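Protein Record: Sequence and Backbone Structure Tokens
======================================================
Scope: a single protein chain, as residues and as a discrete description of its fold.
Tokens: labelled as protein backbone structure tokens, with as many entries as the chain has residues.
Position: the record begins directly beneath this header, with no further notes in between.
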Amino acid sequence: MEYKFLVSYVLILIALYYSYREKLGIEKTILINSLRAFIQLLILGYALVYIFKLKHPIELIFILFLMILFASYTAQNRVNLKEKGFLVAFLSIFFSSSLVIASLLVLQIISFKPNELIPVGGMVIGNSLNVYSLTVDRLKGEIKNNIDLIENFIAIGATLKNALYEMKKASVKAALIPTLNNLQTVGIIHIPGITTGMLLAGAEPLKAVSYQLAIMYMMVAVALFTAVITINIGYRKIFVSVFS
């Protein structure tokens, strides 16, 4: 049973073949990341045995901080901002994730137990990483497609922030599409693993659904916070990176 994942790797091979045939140029990325996923999940499986035994809050906060650092590093590699890109990614992911995780703790939706804080924190940080990448990538595209309009706005005295106003709005909305799609289809198309797992463990349906709703709502919050923070602190660097 443990080796069934090897059979599923056929799907990766199909993706590699298609990418090679159509000259998409992402074969190396697919291959490396698929192998990295296996190694990282294998390490995670053994690491969680020890992490779930931690009791001091500082230890748990340190683990979350390391996760944010790695997410920031990954985000910078993904969008490749030339000027202080890592700092923009770190601040966006750190502030948005911290705000949502702190809210969940204050509202007592989760507690400072490692089996609650670390998995939920990981979901928050991972979603923040995805939204950051989508926001930056979309704003880059908007700037490239509307450079004449931006120049006209600046020529009549507008600041860069004002000249990019509509493009920033479009980037935030585009970055939220995957999260809003999940929110709209949850329970009908998207069947959440947390709800299924809790029901299989014998939890009451209302309890399982309530916990899943809290997770979905936190995903919407962290997505919005990440997109807005990214746009407001990084628009200048994103603009510069388009032409560097």
